[in-house]
TrEMBL record:
This is Xanthine dehydrogenase family protein. One of its GO terms (molecular function) is iron ion binding. It comes from Nakamurella flava. SUPFAM superfamilies: CO dehydrogenase molybdoprotein N-domain-like (SSF54665), Molybdenum cofactor-binding domain (SSF56003). Transmembrane segments: none annotated. The keyword Glycosyltransferase does not apply.
Length: 796
């Protein structure tokens, strides 16, 4: 008997394959004999003019098939020689700039692609790269936000002040409200650059089919259709001539939404020109210096509040380190500026930011995308107010919450999608109660005192966030019932470990009334679903989940209609249980879905015993055409979902830490999460997402920083030097509790969950360390040596 699967902890169908090493990534794509391998010459300088590139040493090098520099690109197509697309333009981005597939005239960060070599294997390709001689005129680089702001040197000669964009939004009059408030505070905060580190780096394989005149591309991407569009435009092809297939993706975390990377274009170009399959797989060093980073921001906050801690005016000014180019427009700082408010409702708010160019790796969204910085600003402000007033930190938050009866809540701001920032639903007071219970907030002072008596420093922190998820524009679902009764589901967004094959199968099994194990899900293959957007912004559950649910409804309606015809019953009297359609109350009168699928195809073949041949005949009613007008053959349903606006998930994290007096080592003893993503499809998967996110948040708070020197060299571009937390750094048993405030905006009442775990990491750990040390923590990440320095600064 089929039971409802929505909300159940169904085991992930993907895991058997992954755990047995049967995952199939771009690098595993069966490559034909004769596949060529690519390597890239990357800039060793952060800022330099290219005077000359000499590739003559490669011309008769054994095993080298081609070398390309910028000057070769226009020979392929004029579009190839144009800059890469600026994906999300914004009116405030007055000085946007994107790079070329291969550097033209100048390089603006260490790692920027200069030449592309294709050879028999990667070893030969790398050796050949080493033989290219480039004559540079080295220029002074701009590294770090203060240097960019000082603007003594420019990243791009024609962009004054290194300013890509200046943006401001206002609600009420923040400055006047602050001036008139009973109490005022100001804070200066900063968060350093970090980056996501998927286990699988970027990768692409291309095959040009001369006979069919089309391109087949395997890409490790979060946006298969985005890659397809960019490749088609740059190669002068129709969209229909390009198939992009996304096999398993070993993590994306945002870095793989950038479409296209230079290699995404150069690999298929080479494949077409050379008539051979060509492959590129990024190595770890390349991931550090030539993919994307995020987070780097300096912030100045002024706040005015009353005796209760109620914020009367909030003025936030921040500077965003955008790296050398702006392919993703202003999306990261815009998100910081609009989602900083979290669950609170300051009556007067001004946010202003400057997005600054630096001679460092480009910045594009990394899981959480601008929100960790915004939450850091807001939650540090809340803690500062509580400390100033001598109040409990939870009390100050509670008086500023949007109340449950105030939804939908319009902040009076414009959200990142250009529409008004309206929260759909939530219950922040209840979340606060839950997190307090989960972490043991009220009991903590006694524990802290007990530990202090033993000479140990314990601290507790709390941070709240609200996250716009499930952004549009649309996503599609296709549900196809095979004649075997098995169900094939396709959606166009891609999957990087989120368990989509499981959750989408749950939704289809529920809606269609088939067995979970009979549903198979395909993602990220433009041959199966050519219209799609991609996996980012915690949107798959809301967008594809809704579309697949609607598509399953359509397939079901059709199945019931055909079955009703066959069973001579009314469709309303039918039910589907475990893949069998039957008359309610009369289970003997039934037909299985596979047979319904056969009936839906009016042409079918039978084996003729006499002639020993397959014969083709038509089925259908004698007095009706086999395919009624307006109907399509086949038992399938397709639908698209496009929401009016984003849905806002929310949550609260709390942590108990200990800081060592002797070594300044920071140990997390307890970490608790309360999360509200509306109705849960699969709580186990959501908890897995939260655990992974929390680990990344801890990494960002305590370990991970991109250490650039003044020359723009990344000093820690390997896992020997760039610390990511291992399982030993993540506390045992992260406690997770859920709240399900359904979204009224989509049919399943879902909100997104994929990024939430990472968002408040820096804010909550800064608060806990501050509480343990009784010292203001204003910069993250914070290492033991940073903590020592902080202690020294405050003893002088
Ligand atoms: N889910 C659910 N019930 C809900 C909401 C979500 O069961 N109410 C499930 C979803 O069905 C999905 C998972 O939780 O299986 C995450 O859902 P969602 O919030 O829709 O996020 P996406 O699937 O769109 O994933 C994107 C998100 C982002 S933006 C980043 S970055 C990220 C992340 O997910 N990168 C990841 N999680 C990651 N997890 C892994 N393993 N690898 C990455 O690269």
């Amino acid at each position: 008997m089929t039971t409802k699967l929505m909300g159940q902890r169904v085991q992930r169908v993907e895991d058997q394959r992954f755990l047995r090493g049967q995952g199939r990534y771009v690098d595993d794509v069966a490559v034909e004999n004769g596949t060529l391998h690519a390597a890239v010459l990357r800039s060793p300088h952060a800022h330099a003019r290219i005077i000359d590139i000499d590739v003559s040493a490669l011309l008769d090098m054994d095993g080298v098939h081609a070398v390309f520099t910028y000057d070769d690109l226009a020979d392929f197509t004029p579009e190839m020689a144009e800059p890469l697309p600026l994906l999300i333009p914004h009116p405030a981005l007055t000085h946007g700039r994107t790079q070329y597939a291969l550097a033209k005239d100048e390089v603006n960060y260490v790692g920027e692609a200069i030449a592309f070599v294709v050879a028999d294997d990667r070893y030969v390709a790398e050796d050949a790269v080493g033989q290219i001689v480039v004559d540079y005129e080295v220029l002074t680089p701009v590294v770090g936000i203060p240097t960019a702001r000082a603007a003594r040197n420019l990243v791009h000669d024609d962009i004054p002040g290194n300013v890509a964009a200046h943006f401001e939004q206002n609600v009420g009059d923040a400055q006047a409200a602050i001036a008139g408030a009973p109490h005022r505070l100001s804070l200066d905060l900063s968060i350093e650059r970090s980056a996501c580190m998927p286990m699988e780096g970027r990768g692409v394989v291309a095959r040009w089919d001369r006979d069919l005149n089309r391109l087949q591309l395997w890409a490790s991407t979060q946006t298969a259709t985005g890659v397809r569009a960019a490749v088609a435009v740059k190669m002068g092809l129709d969209l229909g001539q390009v198939d992009v297939i996304t096999p398993d993706v070993g993590g994306g975390f945002g870095v793989k939404i950038n479409h296209p990377w230079p290699e995404d274009l150069l690999v298929p170009m080479a494949a077409k020109l050379l008539g051979r399959m060509v492959k590129f797989t990024e190595d770890r060093r390349e991931h550090f210096i030539s993919s994307a980073h995020e987070r780097g921001q300096d912030q100045h906050i002024e706040v005015g509040f009353d005796d209760e801690g109620r914020i009367l005016g909030l003025d936030v000014e921040f500077w965003h380190d955008h790296g050398a180019y702006t392919p993703y427009g202003l999306i990261v700082p815009i998100i910081t500026s609009t989602q900083l408010l979290g669950p609170y409702k300051p009556q007067n708010y001004r946010v202003v930011f400057e997005s600054l160019y630096t001679n460092t790796v480009i910045v594009t969204p990394y899981r959480g995308a601008g929100r960790p910085q915004g939450v850091f600003a807001m939650e540090r402000t809340m803690d500062a107010i509580a400390q100033y007033l001598g109040k409990d930190r939870t009390q100050v938050r509670a008086v500023n919450f949007i109340r449950p009866d105030e939804f939908p809540f319009d902040h009076g701001l414009i959200f990142q999608d250009g529409r008004p920032l309206i929260y759909d639903s939530g219950d922040y007071p209840q979340s606060l109660e839950k997190i307090k219970a989960l972490i043991g907030w009220d009991d903590f002072p006694a524990l802290q005192a007990e530990m202090a008596a033993q000479g140990r420093r314990f601290g507790i922190g709390l941070a709240c966030y609200v996250e716009g998820t499930g952004v549009g524009p649309y996503e599609g679902g296709h549900v196809h019932i095979e004649t075997t009764g098995k169900v094939k589901v396709a959606t166009g967004l891609t999957t990087q470990g989120q368990g989509h094959a499981t959750v989408f199968a749950q939704l289809v099994a529920d809606e269609l009334g088939v067995k979970f194990e009979d549903v198979e899900v395909v993602t990220g293959d433009t041959r199966r679903m050519p219209y799609a957007v991609g996996t980012y912004a915690s949107r798959a559950a809301v967008m594809s989940g809704s579309a697949i649910h609607l598509a399953a409804k359509r397939a079901k309606e059709k199945a019931l209609k055909i079955a009703a015809d066959a069973l001579e019953a009314d469709p309303d009297d039918l039910q589907i249980v475990d893949g069998v359609v039957s008359v309610k109350g009369s289970p003997g009168t039934s037909i299985d879905l596979g047979t319904v699928a056969v009936l839906s195809n009016p042409l079918r073949y039978a084996f003729d015993e006499k002639s020993k041949l397959a014969t083709q005949f038509s089925v259908g009613h004698p007095d009706r055409p086999p395919v009624p007008r307006g109907e399509e053959p086949g038992l399938e349903g397709k639908d698209f979902y496009s929401p009016d606006r984003a849905t806002f998930a929310s949550g609260m994290h709390a942590a108990i830490v200990e800081t060592s007096e002797d070594t300044a080592e920071i140990t997390i003893h307890k970490y608790a999460v309360v999360h509200d993503c509306g109705h849960l499809i699969n709580p186990m998967i959501v908890e897995g997402q939260i655990h992974g996110g929390v680990a990344q948040g801890i990494g960002g708070a305590l370990y991970e920083r991109m250490a650039y020197d003044d020359a723009g060299q990344l000093l820690n571009a390997s896992f020997m030097d760039f610390l990511i937390p291992y399982v030993s750094e993540i506390p045992d048993g992260i406690a997770v509790d859920h709240l399900e405030t359904p979204s009224p905006l989509n049919p399943l009442g879902i909100k997104g969950a994929g990024e939430a775990g990472v968002i408040p990491g820096s804010a909550v750990l800064a608060a806990a360390i501050e509480d343990a040390e009784k010292l203001p923590v204003t910069a993250m990440p914070i290492s033991p040596s940073d903590l020592f320095t902080l202690r020294l600064e405050h003893t002088q």
